[in-house]
Give the backbone structure.
Amino acid sequence: QVQLQESGPGLVKPSETLSLTCTVSGGSVSSGNNYWNWIRQPPGKGLEWIGYIYYNGNTKYNPSLKSRVTLSLDKSKNQFSLKLGSVTAADTAVYYCARESYMMGSTVGLDHWGQGTLVTVSS
Amino acid sequence: DIQMTQSPSTLSASVGDRVTITCRASQSISSWLAWYQQRPGKAPNLLIYKASTLQSGVPSRFSGRGSGTEFTLTISSLQPDDFGTYHCQQYSSYPWTFGQGTKVAIK
């Protein structure tokens, strides 16, 4: 059973960098059949896709966040990570990591999610 | 970016009712659409992908239809476990985008 678990500080000061890690169990971040995504949800609002990283290190970011986002992969720990710089109160949200699976050449959506972690930006 | 618009924003229905949620895309996304259920305080759960394919383990009372710009999610007979917010998501082009959500309450 694939499980994802987010970890990181729950409180970040304005202008600093938000850093989160997603640990994967029951699956491998080295799999070529999966993309590893980050999604966030501000309190009471909808979902926003942040970006993905592939096993070979390829990334794709949401242009609205691209200048501030970096995704990375640690195959030895079976983890992937998110860094979001120069945060403001607008970055306060529940952050989810999620696995996207591919089957027969097309995506089957975000089929496994972490439980989510609330990150608050405040001084 | 492709804008996704869901309707209604909220609905209340009784157990056993047939419920339909609509999702419209601002441009054609073919069949590259997924639906998720999100219970309060929980992560979204994938229900349907490629507009109409039921994810493994999802009850058959859920179904999806549509292509191009208009899509529907139908619950054929609403159950107490079906409360929560339903989100559509397009994966036709990046950045992936979600609808604003439809909150379903059980009367």
